[in-house]
Structures are given as structure tokens and as C-alpha cells.
Amino acid sequence: MFLTVTTTRQPASDLGFLLHKHPGRVQSFELSAGQAHVFYPETSDTRCTAALMLEVDPVALGRGKSGSGDGFTLGQYVNDRPYAASSLLSVALKEVFRTALTGRCKSRPELAASAIPLDIRVPACPGGADLVRRLFEPLGWTVEATELPLDPQFPRWGDSRYVDLRLTGELRLADALNHVYVLLPVLDNAKHYWVSEDEIDKLVRAGGDWLAGHPEKELITRRYLAHRRALTAAALTRLAEVDDSEPEEIDNALAEPVVLEAPDRPVPLAEQRRGTIMAVLRSLRARSVGDFGCGEGALVRDLLAEKSVERIVAADVSARALQVAARKLRLERRSETERSRLELLQSSLTYRDDRLAGLDAAVLMEVVEHVDPPRLEALERTVFEFAAPRAVIVTTPNREYNVRFESLPAGELRHRDHRFEWTRAEFRAWADRVASSYGYGVRMLPVGSEDPEVGPATQLALFTKGGAA
């Protein structure tokens, strides 16, 4: 199996930094299916090509040491697995270029974050020309798919199901590699190993920022998960969580909330909310802070301005919201020191993510009310059990205060995406239960002034680990 990656972005030899593989050396890697080799057929300042070649052990494969049966191996010893791109090459891509797939490059961070001209070729790709175009063209690729004959010596036999695939475009290298990593086994419509629930996590991690909006997402998901109905349904549900809302449809992703401010308040409620949160963080002396459900990054902007905060982890389930945040924060204009303080992560708070762990404080600003009640327990475990910061700040609307908004019809929630809104007693009961379950103390605070009858417009719970807040 063979795959090449070429760039003409000068100096082109910087491709070695992005792939974390030196252009002057041939490197080999032992894999369960055989041996992978990385080398550079051409290297210059104007053009650089990296090649990944996978030598598959067909005997081991045929004996069933890996694989899902004869339907995949096409027989015990005579099959196409050593030659045609498949999940075997996809696994090799992940193992050999693991760091490049994450988009990390300490020596060239600005290059890793930039779209560069790329040319990817897979000489024997399954699936057919039509399917290849349906999968890759929506991702911004220009696709050339030359159909390969069954046998050049016997043209009457017609074409095979394989194409000589060439993809050209300007993309981040990490995005390009993730496209290929996910779609090769989809094109082959099979995997050489047993597909379990872990594959859902792999799919969402690799495709979360592009698959949810792909016109063929159902086909991709079904094939990637080997047509297992339960896994496919679960994956499509998670992808819907990743991208079911435009950033502007989530009130925490707006410069101002849908209900802008309470009557007679000179300062918008959104600003009061952020100001209260920042005051609490200063009192905690938090040096590492997570903004979980960061939206367009309004709070992140305040955190970046707070010099005592050394590390900021901004996470959101929506890839588009993160793109809006990066644009509005003008990260490309900020200094390297400022950019190094911030991590933008796509992550769902209803699934464990170890990248969110180890923080002094985490903020869930107007987030919990967007979660379906049956999923709240999963969010609680993700934040309080697995991430387990020293302190957690949660803000949410006070439903009792809704009667003070003249523009809000009686009985309606403040935003169309809210699944619920709590009264003060309901929020207190939830906070007490969570604190008791996960070893936190909790203290309730108002945001802004309190109405003597219905309380504050926004309510805040401060959880501190290991005792009373």
C-alpha cells in the first residue's frame, strides 16, 4: 500500500516538521499488520513529497490473526489486502503520523495552523470514482480519480472498483490527514479488526469538525462502523450534538444574550455575568481556567486580558462556534505569548475528555440549560468526576425572574435552545446533590442586584473541592 503527501509551500522541506519525520532519513515502524516505511522521494525548497509505504504480511492476515472474516480478506491467502488502500493503511497513517494528525508542531506552530497547498495521492484506492468525489469534494478537495482496469492485458474485462486517486487543495495538514484517515476504510467498506464502541470515539475525534456537516455523513458513519446499527445510531446522535446548532443560536455564543438586560439596568446582563465570574476567579487565584461551552469566546477575551491567568482551555461542542471564537479573538494578530496561553478544543461535556483535566477552575456560563435533562448526569461526571478542577463556577438563568421581562411571553423560556430553566430552589437542590456526590462544597451567589420578590436574573453556584465554599 502506498500514499504520498506533497506540498509546494516554500520552503517545502518544512513538511518534515509538520509530519515530525526527517526528510533525510528512511524510518520504519513495526505494526500488527506488517511494517510501515516513511521516506521522501523528493525534497527541495520548492517541492517536497513524503511517502508512506505499508508492507502487509498476507500470510498472517490470511490466517486470521487480524480481520473480520473472509468477507474482508477475500480468501485465506489470495486477496487484495496487501495492495489496495484500506483500514490497514488508515491505521498505519495514524500510528506513523500520530502527532501530525493532532495538528501540533512546536517548532512551526503557525505553519501547523495554516492552510497550505497539498497534493495527496493513493495509487490504488477502492470505492470507485463517483463515491470518491462524493466523499472528498465537499471537504474542499479537487478530486482526480482515474479508474483502473481489472487487467491491462485484458481490456475487455473492464474497469475494477479501484481508482488512482489524487487530491489537491489548500488545507491544514492535520485536516487533510484526518480526512484520509476516516475515509479510506469508508471507501473500502470494511475494516480488518472488530468494530466496537471505541470506534465511535475515534470517528468523532477525527471527524467532529467536518463530518457533522458533510452531506454524506450517514453513509460515512454507517460504513466506518461496519454497518452496525446500534453503533451507527449512537455516532449520529453524538455528531448531532457536535453540530446541531449554529453558534448564533446559542445564547452563550452571542455578544449579547437574547434577553439583553433587566429593566433599569445600565450594564447589560451579559457583562454583569462575566464581571461576576472574573471577580470569583480572582478570589480563587486561579492560574489555569477552563471555559466549558465557550461559544464565541466572550469570556475567553476577558481571561486573556487577565495576566494572572497563565493557561486557558476554551472548549465547545460546536466546531463552527470555535471558528467564530478564533476569528473574533483575532488570534492571528495576537503575540505568540498570548496564543500559547490559549487552547481551543472541540469537546462535548457529556463525554469524558482527559484534555479538560488538571485545571484550577472551570466555568460553565449559561451552559447547563442547553443540555437535555437525561444527559445532565453525564455532564456532571465529565466535569466534576473526570475533569475535577479545584473549583467550578456554574451560571444559569433564574426562571422566577422571567416575569420581569416584559418582552417575554408568560411561561416561555428565555431562549429557544433552552431545555429547561431552574427556579432558585431547583438550582440549589441540583447544586447540593452534585457537591455531595463529587466531594465539593457549594455556595450560591447572585449576578447583579436581587429583586426582593423573584431574586436575581442570573444565579451562580461556586463549587470548591474538598469542603465548604
UniProtKB/TrEMBL annotation:
GO molecular function: metal ion binding; RNA binding; small RNA 2'-O-methyltransferase activity
Enzyme Commission (EC) number: 2.1.1.386
Cofactor dependency: Mg(2+)
Alphabetized UniProt keyword annotations: Magnesium, Metal-binding, Methyltransferase, RNA-binding, RNA-mediated gene silencing, S-adenosyl-L-methionine, Transferase
Pfam families the UniProt entry points to: Hen1_L (PF12623), Methyltransf_12 (PF08242)
One GO biological process term: regulatory ncRNA-mediated gene silencing
UniProt domain Hen1 N-terminal: residue ranges: 1-240
InterPro entries, alphabetized: 3'-RNA_MeTfrase_Hen1_bac, Hen1, Hen1_N, Hen1_N_sf, Methyltransf_12, SAM-dependent_MTases_sf
Catalysed transformations (reactions): small RNA 3'-end nucleotide + S-adenosyl-L-methionine = small RNA 3'-end 2'-O-methylnucleotide + S-adenosyl-L-homocysteine + H(+)
Methyltransferase type domain sequence ranges: 291-389
Protein family per UniProt: Belongs to the methyltransferase superfamily. HEN1 family.
The name this protein goes by in its record: Small RNA 2'-O-methyltransferase
Organism: Amycolatopsis dendrobii
